[in-house]
Amino acid sequence: MKARFLTTIxxxxxxxxxLSAQEKGLTNNSKSPxxxxxxxxxxxxxxxxxxxxxxFEVCKTSMVPHMMGCYLxxxxxxxxxxxxxxxxxxxxxxxxxxxxxxxxxxxxxxxVMVYAQSKDKNLEKEIDEIIQVIGKAQREDGYIHTxxxxxxxxxxxxxxxxxERLDFExxxxxxxxxxxxxxxxxxxxxxxxxxxxxxxxxxxxxFKTATAELARNAICPSHYMGVTEMYxxxxxxxxxxxxxxxxxxxxxxxxxxxxxQDRIPFKQQTKAVGHAVRANYLYAGxxxxxxxxxxxxLMIAMEKxxxxxxxxxxxxxxxxxxxxxxxxxxxxxxxxxxxxxxxxAYGSDYELPNITAHNESCANIGNLLWNWRMLQITxxxxxxxxxxxxxxxxxxxxxxxxxxxxxxxxxxxxADEVSHNLRxxxxxxxxxxxxxxxxxxxxxxxxxxQEYFYSKAADGLYxxxxxxxxxxxxLNGKAVKLKQETNYPWNGEIVVTIDKFPAxxxxxxxxxxxxxxxxxxxxxxxxxxxxxxxxxxKLSHTWKAGDQxxxxxxxxxxxxxANPLVEETRNxxxxxxxxxxxxxxxxxxxxxxxxxxxKIPSYVSLKPVKTKFxxxxxxxxxxxxxxxxxxxxxxTLYREIPDSKPKTTKIQLIPYFAWDNRGKSEMTVWIPxxx
Length: 675
Description:
This protein is of the alpha+beta class.
C-alpha cells in the first residue's frame, strides 16, 4: 500500500439524545412522519448461506479489498492521493475527474458496511485513518473538494469554489454525508460525521445567498439524500430546511435543461427525462424530502414520473438511461431552439436499443435507491418488484463473479462487428481509468442489500425479499428473531422459522408480480389469507417460538415479449425465471456458430440445471432451439429468408448477470421467436 496513513487511533463520543438504539437503519426513517415502512437497524440481518451469502462473501474478500487497494495506490488511482495533497501531507497536482472524491466516499461507505458485518479491527483501523486525512483536507468553513483545495494552494488569491458547473462539488459532499451517517450509526464515532456536519453547514449558508443560476452547480444531486440523512441523524432542523429549499430552488432557474432536470419546476414534471443518473438521484432525494415534509405535490410528480419510467423507458433488467447521447425533447417539438443534447439520456418513449444500450450502473443503482424510498413511503409491493429486478440483473451484471471486473455501461446485446466501437469497453475492467464512479457504487450496494430485506410497520413486519438469513431486531419495543431458509432465486421455496415475534403483530409476505401461483402455509396448514401477485399477503396469527411459514412461489421459465412499440425487440422474446433474466452467450452455442443464428420456439421447454463457473453457483436453462442453416451475412445488408427448415439444437441460457465471465464473447438477451 503506497498511501501514507496517520496511525493515531480515533476516539469516539456519542451525539447525546440524537441517536437511540432503535435508529440505525440504512435510511434512518424511524421518525419520518410520512413513512409507512421503517428500516431495520444495520446489522440486524446476517446472511447464513445461499445466493446473497455468496455475493457478500465475494464483496468482503474480493470487491472491497481490490477496489480500495486501487484507490490507495497512486499508480492506479489518484483518489486518495488527492486527499493527502489537499491535506498538506504531500505535494502535487490533482489527478482524475472532478467527481473522484465522491467515488472515494462511496468506496469508504462500502468498507463501512463490510465492517458492520465482519467487525474486522484492521478494517476499522483503515477506515479511521482514512477519515483523519479527509478531515485535514477540509477547509475551516466546511467546504471540501480536493480539486478546488489543491488549486487554492497554487493560487490562493483566486476564488475557485463553484466556478465550474461540472465540478460536482455538492455531489461529492452528498456521498460524504451518506457515508458519515452510516459509519456513525454503526460505530458511534463522530469524526466523519463532524466533517459532514461542517460541509452541510457550509452548504446551508451557501444556498442561503446563492443565486438560482449559481445553484445550478448542484449537478447530479446526491446531496439531496445526503442532507436529508444528516437531518435524520443529527436532528438539526436547518438541514431539512436546506433539503426542501434544494427542490424549490430548481424552479427559479432560467434557461434550465433536461440534462439537469431543471427545464421546468420539479412539481410540474411528468416524465423521466435527461441524464439518467442525475434524474434518478434527484427522484430518490425528492422522495426523502417528501418522507419528512409530506408535500403532496412532490408525490404527485414522482408517481407520474415512475409510471412513465416503468411503462415506457425501463429495460427488462431494471436498467435505464438507454442512450449514450440523446436530445431532449426528442422528436416531440417543432421548436428547434429548445432541443438540447443530453448525455446518458432517457430517450423517447419505447426507445430501448440493445446493442447500443447505455444503462450506466450508477443509473440502475439510482433507480434502486428511488424505488427503495418509494416502497418505504407507500408499502406498495410494485416498488419492491422493480428493486428485485434490478438486484438480480442490472446491479449484479455490473461486476464479474470474482469481484474484480466492472462494467460502466450494460448493453443487452454484444456483437463482434459493432460493439467494439462503443464508448466504453464491452468487457469488464479492473479499474475504469477515467470514470470509475460505477464500481464503488456497485460494491457499496451489494454490501447493503441485506438492509432492504425487511421493513417494520406499526402493525407488523414486512418481508420484502428472499434469501437465507437471520433477523434479530425489535418491533414496537419487542424482540423479533427469525430465520429464512431458501435457495432463492434458483427456486421459489422459502421457509421462515419464528424464534421470537410479538404475538399480536402481523407478518406481511411479498408475492412478486411474476409469481402466477403462490401458496403460503403456517405450520403445515394453508394460510387463511388472500394471496395476490404483486402485493403483500397479511398473515395474522398468534405467533410462538417454532412456528414456520412456508412460502412456495411457482417458478417456471417464462417467455417475455415487449410492447410492439419497442421496435428493437419486435418479434423477439426474453427468458425470465423468477426474478432472473437470462441471456444466450457464445460459449453456450456450438463452435463456429453465433448467438444471432438461433430462434426460440414458442413451445420450448426450458429445464433448470445447476452449474458453476468462476467459483459461483448458478442455475442455467437448457432447451431445444432452432438454428437457421449456415449462410454468411458478410457484405450483406438484406436478403430473402431461407426456404429450408431450421435445425433443432440443444443449448443453454445463463443468467444475464453472469455473462462475460468465461472470456470474450457475444451475448443477447432478446432472441427471435418462432411460433
